[in-house]
Each structure stands twice: as structure tokens, then as C-alpha cells.
Amino acid sequence: MATLCGKVVILLLVGICFLLVEILPANGQKFEFKHSFKRPFYLGRGGTIPFWEYGGSTVVSEDFVRLTPAMQSRAGWLWNTLPLDLKNWEVLVEFEIGGGGKRGADGLALWYAAEPKQEGIVFGSKNMWKGLGVFFDTFDNDGQGDNPKIVVMLNDGTKSYDAWSDGGPDAVASCQHDFREKQTKVKLNYKAGVLQLLIESYNSWVVCATVEAQLPTGYYFGLSAATGELTDNHDVFSFTTYNLDTLQKLSSGLQPMRPSPVPVVTPALINPPVTEERNEPEKNDQQQQEPEQQQQTNQQQQETNSNPQPSTQPQQQTQVVATVDLNPILNRLSDLANDQRRLSEAIKRLEEMGSRQSQNNAQDQNGMMAEAFEKLLNTVTDIKDTSNKRYEQIANNIADLKAQMQREREAFNREVLMQIQTINKAVASVHAGVETAKNEQRTLQEELVSNKQEIATTIERNTSFSTWMYVLFFQACFAAVFVWWRKTTNEEKKWV
Question: Looking at the DSSP assignment, which residues form a beta bridge with residue 197?
């Protein structure tokens, strides 16, 4: 009997541990995917990130989000499309600012504001906002030599950010850290009205600022950046949000449990109804034992109430983390433990009463309980194996899809390259034809000039010869006429 009860208790503890291992995340925080993104990005239609919207000079790729390129007078933004409904949260951002040379500008801003997607002059976003602004300022406007600089500012919609003094007196906290030309991780933690900003330095977290603040729910997370005469690339690699409300709920739900009073259990509670064939001596023995059982049970209740079961977890030092509300599960497990304890008490009383039939029924019920726990563990194991197989299948499908996209991209690039080469060849051929036509035109012009000179010389030569021919012709005609006239005149004189 004791061995069987011990096995049931062990199975119960194993089931609780297994459920906690399956439910609780490794880092003790619940990941809020609707308020997060991290590489590699699974882009939607039009190259968008799910639950995020961007504009300005922002460009989204598979590995990072570039808010601004290293070009002058650019501004870009990226905002979450869903409001945050968490009272306690933590944000982890990984980014890199650089590429603009020895000096860069202007910087990057992390927002938790009431009005998203408002372009303006404060690092590419709206001035006089309502909410929280954390500015990673790379340009030393006030000439104090303390940039790169991180500035924290809370605004109720009436304060104006003074860029010429790098935040000025309205900044509630600031710290100096060289975050240019390197990948930087920052953590923004808000819990119980305390805002803490940490930055990673040499694989450890360093506190930059701790501020008391009352940040309401329903605001939006966002990022923005801007450049001026000096430039920088402003790239963001990940933005992950974690839910800290679950920790508070679980801590308040896991109070030290006190055992409930054990009710009086009679054989009628766990056995089938006794038939009328029972003889009178057995009835008399039962009637005599019932007052003793009642007295023993009352004594156990008094001892239990005077000596409550110690808490398994201290109230002040308990630090339990989960991703879901475990109160229903823990209450159910507590009920099962109480039922187990009541069942054990009933079995002990039945042993004292000498009722083998009741004992066997209780043992059968206990065995059924153990079998149910085994089935539960087997079911959970099967679910876990099935989930792992599905996750592996999804991962393989994603890997195959990425490989197919890579192959299609390479094929497309090859085709485009071949078309570009063909176009280059055609352009080169046209250029060669143009050069040939130019050479032929030049040759033709030279031939025309030469022919022109020859024609002029020939015309000039032919013009002199013709003139002399005309003179000789007229002289011959004159001589012929003169001869004819003399002849006619002589004949007339003879007749006279």
C-alpha cells in the first residue's frame, strides 16, 4: 500500500515538473511576437514586417532595417501597428550606427508614444510628443564633447526637444557611451513604475539610467533616425518585447498552500451500497466503530489546523517565471494532491476497520489514479514529440523555401546579367557602327574637298582655252569675210 501511494506521489511530482518545464520559457519571460521583429525577417507582401509599418527613407531587407542611408538630409521611421496592453514589459534592441566617416549625425530614437507615424524634426519624428523618447545622439550640438550620448526624456505633449543643447534641462537622465561603428544592444525595462535603461558593454549589462515614470498602456513602440550635413547608416537588427505581467500574476497566484481540513470519510463514500444480506453482528461492529472514527478524524483536523503545512516557496524570495497563467493548472494539481491525501486517510481508516473490500476498492481507485497520471504523461510526451516533429518540419520547409528563393534569385541574377551583357554587346556594336559611319563621312568629306579643287582647276584651265578658241574663230571668220569682199570688189572693177 505504502509503495503504491509513494509511486502515485512520485508520478504526481513528475507530472507537475514536466508541465512546468513545458510551460515555462527558458529565460523566464514571455515573448510578445506582435510587438517584436528579429532577423532573419519573414517579410510579407510588399516587403513589410508583420505588425510593423515603415516610411520615409526606411528600407527593409532580410537581415536588417535601414532607417537612413549615409546620405545628407534623410529621415526614416518604423512603428508598431498594435498598441501595447502590458503594464510591465522589457524591450531589447540591437542596432548599429556608422558608415558616415570619422564624424556622423544625427542619431537614432526609440519611442513609446501615444501617436505613431508622425514625421518631424526630432530624429525624424514628431516634436512635443506624448510618452517616452530615448535618443542615441551622435552629434555634439552643444559643444560639450560628450557625444555619442544617450538621452532619456519623458513628455506630456507640452515640452519641446532642444536639439542645440542635446535635450537640455528637459532630459530626465543621460549617459555617455561610444556606440558608433559597432553593433550595440540596449535593454529598456519598465516594471512597477520604474524605468531602467541598460547597455551591453564587454558581454555584460551596464546601467545607463534609472527613472521613476508612470507609463500608461495603449501607447506604441517605434524607431526613427535622421541625418543632416553629416551622415550615418542607421541599421536595426532586432526589436524584441517581453511580457513581465506574467511574472507578477504567477507570483501573486503561487501563495503558500495550507492543507484543507480532511472531511469525515465513511465506507459509503468510496464503496458501493451495502446490501441487506449483511448480518447483524457486522452492523453492530460498524456502529461501534463509527464514533471512534469520528473522534479520530476530529483529532486529526485539530492537529492539521494547529500545525499547518509549511510553504514550499518563501513569499518574499519567490521568483517564478512563466509565459501563461498557471493558476488553473496549479489549483487543479493542488486539488489532486488533496484528493490523494484524503484517499490515503480513508485507506488507513479502512485498514483499521478491517474492511478488506473497501481497502481493495480504494487501492483500485488509487491504481486508476496512477494509471491516469501515466496516461497523462504519455499524452504530454506524445504531444511534445508531435510538436517537435512539426517544428522540425516547419524549419525544414522554411530552409527549403529559403534555398529555393536563393536559387531563384541566383537564376534571376544570371538571366539579368546575361541580358545586360547582350545589351552591352549591342551597345558596343552600335557604337562601332557609329564610329565606322563617322570615318566614312570624314573620308567622303575629304574626297569631296579634293574633287572640288580638281573641278575648280579643270574649269579654270578649260575657261582659258575656250577664250582663245573664240578669238581665233572670230579672226578666221573676219579673214574669210575680208577675202570674199576683196574678191567681189575686183570682179566688179573688171566689168566696169
Answer: 188, 209
**In the 8-state DSSP scheme, what is residue 52?**
E
Candidates 74, 55, 35; CA nearest to 118 is: 55
User: DSSP letters along 66-78, please?
Assistant: EEE-SSSS-EEEE
Query: Would the pTM count as exceeding 0.85?
Result: no
Q: Are 12 and 336 in contact (CB under 8 A)?
A: yes
Please tell me the least confidently modeled range out of 17-26, 91-100, 445-454: 17-26
Looking at residues 12-32, what average pLDDT do you find? 58
Alpha-carbon gap, residue 230 to 313, rounded angstroms? 57
Q: What is the pLDDT at residue 449?
A: 86
Listed in order, strand segments (DSSP E) in 244-308 are none
φ, ψ for residue 296, nearest 5 deg? -65, -40
How distant is the alpha carbon of residue 296 from its chain centre? 64
Q: Is the pLDDT of residue 26 over 70?
A: no
Of 91 and 388, which is predicted with more confidence? Answer: 91
Q: Cβ distance 345 to 353 under 8 Å?
A: no
Task: Say which range, 122-131, 357-366, 376-385, has the weakest mean pLDDT.
Answer: 357-366
Residue type, 314: P
Backbone angles phi, psi at 53, to 5 degrees: -135, 140
CA distance 454 to 459: 8
Residue 124 has pLDDT above 90, yes or no: yes
Does position 68 have pLDDT exceeding 80, yes or no?
A: yes
Count of Cβ atoms closer than 10 Å to residue 39 Cβ? 14
Phi and psi dihedrals of 295, rounded to 5?
Answer: -65, -45
Name the band, by pLDDT with cuts 50, 70 and 90, for residue 51: very high
**What residue ranges define each of the domains in the chain, with the CATH number in brackets?**
30-243 (2.60.120.200)
403 φ/ψ angles, rounded to the nearest 5 degrees: -65, -40
- Pick the closest to residue 373 from 5, 12, 7, 3 (CA basis): 12
Tell me how many degrees the CA angle 81-86-89 measures, rounded to the nearest 5.
Answer: 100
Residue 309 gets which letter from DSSP?
P
Percent of the chain scored above 90 by pLDDT? Answer: 35
Give the separation between CA 107 and CA 184, rounded to whole angstroms.
13
Asked whether the beta carbons of 309 and 257 are under 8 A apart, the reply is yes
Distance separating alpha carbons of residues 153 and 167, to the nearest angstrom: 8
Taking the alpha carbons of 259, 261, 266, 269 in that order, is the dihedral positive or negative? negative
